[in-house]
Amino acid sequence: MSDSNLNNLELGSHYTAQELEGFISTTDATILSSNEDELFTDSEREYKVTHQFKGCFEQAAEDGGKRYKAQRTYVVEKV
To answer: Does the pLDDT at position 3 exceed 90?
Structure first.
């Protein structure tokens, strides 16, 4: 993939860390990565989208309540 103006990630597609960084900077989405905090350390490393969800549950810091957050969420794995 080489589109720098991504507005969606496709399940099964490969993206560079640079493309994912551009995507997350311009889109209200969450990316979960299998390599912890190293997702953006090598801009040319490729990742495959293995799962996508329409949202996720999160716990609010203020009151401890759990809420469903309707936000696109993707799981990526190093290729």
So the answer is: no
